[in-house]
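Annex B. Sample input.
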Amino acid sequence: MTGWAIAGSAPQTISPRNTQNKRRMDLKVKWVGVKAAGLAQQMVGMFIPEISWHSWFGRLGKARLRINRTNCYTDDPVYTTRRRETPNMRSIVSTSVMALMLTLLSWGAMAQTPLITEAESQAPNLQVPATRAITRGPGISLLSPTEVTGKSFAFKMNFEPRGGAKIDPASIKFEYLKQPLVDLTARFKTGLSGNQLELPQASVPAGTHPIRVTVRDSEGREGKTIIHLNAK
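Annex B, continued. Sample output.
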């Protein structure tokens, strides 16, 4: 007789089925451990997103757990989870760019509009005879003062149609009465809106500047006037 035996007891045997059940229970315990560890690391990653480490849990796990800025995952897709995502950097950059563009647009709307250059102001004046002919053409009213601060001033003008006619925007013309004649239309028209022209911040060199304004209505009738801006 070989081996050791306990008196009064029958030899104990373990069936293959019991062994299989025990292994299944061990696997379940290890699986729960892996899931719990993954969840714990996911929660930690929400507060410390820069952590990166490896964990192995028994023969079943062998899973590499890693937490970075975007994911909490394992190499096994069964244990893959996704943590709460941080704000998208692209959306932040896009919002910043849009805010910058709006700021630049508002600044551009208030930027100075140079109407006359220093070189143009040095040219000799063009002598134009004064006329007081009665006309039924559109009226031209200067709403801003003629005495201005050359570096920055507001310019405002109204065009007044008569007899039910309408102002022809394409006919509006501004001419600097110098030799040679200087067309200022493009510089003034940046502030044209309907029958009103407004430049919040215009600038001209110091001196007196004679400017002729011409406009026609939808019936072809013409109105004109000469304004003198005296800049200091």
